[in-house]
Specification:
five-stranded mixed beta sheet; 479 residues; alpha/beta
Length: 479
């Protein structure tokens, strides 16, 4: 009986852990497909009927899923491709009988699927683990994180075919798992086996290689998305889909959050954190205690770990500092744009000042851009207490100065003396040169009359200058 209870308890705990892992994981689903029955896949904007001639470009590679049977007059196939037929699906030749809705036939061409790019944020949507579309809420993602991140799960809808361009600025695109045709591939070996099959080359093309790791984010403070290198590619795809320009913000000095392509009105908060910080718990806390308040209806928040490049004397450093970025936007318009987000940011900063240490937050900095903010003026509100890094820097400086003073007192460190000219020395009158008749002091060892010399006259060329050695007696050599 005791063993059975322990087994039930173990299964219960495993279920809780599985649920928590599912809630922490992020699932992104690919939107486009290359299905035969999708009207947007044809140049006529409709599915081919019995009197139509279906034309696939011969030099295009394509994978097409067919759900149901179709009668066609004729069909031209590509040189490289596949048809994936569902149960009961088939192609038959049109027998000339009447087909309702297909009075006049024509040539219907399959649209080009080559332009569908992996790093296009408009082609992905957040879903639940079951594949159902996630309900809209107060949480959104910056543009770089709308494309699958390195610890995300990717889902291609069951009973759909697709073709995606994986061109990337990074050689390997890491993912936690990939689900295709309802089959989840979550180990490197399973993914390698799928890549070796016939469908993978028809579904994926480009210079970027997809790699399944099967591991989630190991850090409770969160993990960076990993799409920074492809940021320009993501923004180019976004602008191409939205008319090649960002929407005009209502504020005069829009903010530019890291990982976001366009400027926004509202507020951003950058948090420095300690090892005790838990990103998921802090996000849940903000949603439950602040974002759920009626006065913040229409406010959305993005929160994630990012890496901010360090600068020294205006020079960009190769190293980057991890921080937690919070982006707050609202649906206010005109001069009210960003004001609700600003108020929420102020409440978050007040909460950090009171409970930041318990939450694992060491400091925070807020920037604001609203419809009433003057151009070039962005509010910045650091946390009131000194950060741990600053304290350590001051302690190190004091210890260094104390050590130098101790060695100097002990006589083991000699500091060079600095002789600075005094002001009164420069004010003294210059000493007049000694008179010509002044011979200076008498030298008892060497008392020889110096030769007369007139500094104003040129020295004769035959003049010989010599010196007498008082220790040498010339009479001793005259023998």
């Amino acid at each position: 009986m005791a063993a059975g209870c322990q087994m039930k308890l173990l299964l219960f705990l495993l279920g809780i852990l599985k649920f928590l892992a599912a809630t922490a994981a992020v699932y992104k689903q690919w939107i486009p497909n290359t299905n035969f029955e999708t009207a947007s896949n044809w140049d006529k904007g409709r599915v081919p009927c019995a009197r139509d001639v279906v034309h696939f470009e011969k030099d295009k590679v394509v994978s097409v899923f067919v759900r149901s049977p179709h009668a066609l007059t004729d069909m031209y196939l590509p040189l490289s491709g596949e048809f994936v037929l569902a149960a009961g699906a088939a192609f038959t030749a049109f027998d000339g009988s009447w087909d309702p809705g297909c009075d006049s036939g024509g040539t219907v061409r399959f649209a080009d699927a080559e332009q569908h790019a992996w790093f296009d944020p408009t082609l992905w949507q957040d879903v639940l683990p079951s594949g159902e579309l996630k309900a809209a809420g107060p949480i959104f993602s910056v543009h770089e994180e709308r494309v699958p991140c390195r610890y995300d799960d990717v889902i291609f809808q069951p009973q759909t075919s697709f073709r995606v361009n994986t061109d990337s600025s990074q050689p390997v695109i890491h993912l936690r798992s990939i689900s295709i045709m309802g089959q989840e591939l979550n180990t490197p070996s399973a993914w390698a086996e799928y890549l070796g099959g016939p469908s993978a080359p028809l579904q994926f093309h480009g210079n970027g290689t997809l790699q399944v790791t099967g591991t989630g984010c190991p850090d409770k403070s969160g993990c960076a998305c990993g799409n920074t290198l492809d940021g320009p590619r993501i923004c180019a795809a976004l602008l191409r889909a939205s008319g090649r320009q960002c929407p005009e913000p209502a504020c005069q000095s829009p903010l530019q959050p890291l990982g976001h392509c366009c400027g926004v009105c509202g507020a951003t908060i950058n948090l420095d954190f300690t090892p005790d910080f838990d990103l998921q718990k802090y996000q849940d806390k903000l949603v439950q205690e602040l974002l759920s308040q009626p006065k913040y209806a229409g406010v959305q928040m993005a929160i994630s770990k990012v890496h901010k490049a360090q600068t020294f004397l205006g020079i960009m450093s190769r190293s980057a500092t991890p921080l937690i970025q919070i982006v707050l936007i609202d649906d206010r318009a005109g001069v009210q744009a960003g004001t609700a987000a600003e108020q929420l940011a102020a409440d978050i900063m007040e909460s950090i000042a009171q409970h930041g240490e318990a939450l694992g937050i060491s400091s925070g900095k807020m920037e604001v851009a609203t419809g009433t903010t003057a151009s070039g003026q962005v509010g910045s509100h650091p946390v009131s207490r000194i950060t741990a890094g600053t304290v350590m820097g001051l302690l190190f400086s004091l210890l260094l100065l104390g050590g130098i003073l101790f060695l100097y007192r002990k006589g083991k460190l000699r500091l060079p003396a600095l002789r600075l000219p005094q002001p009164w020395h420069r004010l003294e009158d210059p000493v007049s040169p000694a008179p010509a008749g002044d011979k200076g002091f008498d030298n008892p060892v060497f008392n020889v009359e110096p030769p007369d010399a007139d500094l104003g006259e040129e020295r004769p060329k035959d003049l010989q200058v010599f010196y007498l050695n008082p220790l040498y007696d010339a009479s001793e050599t005259e023998t």
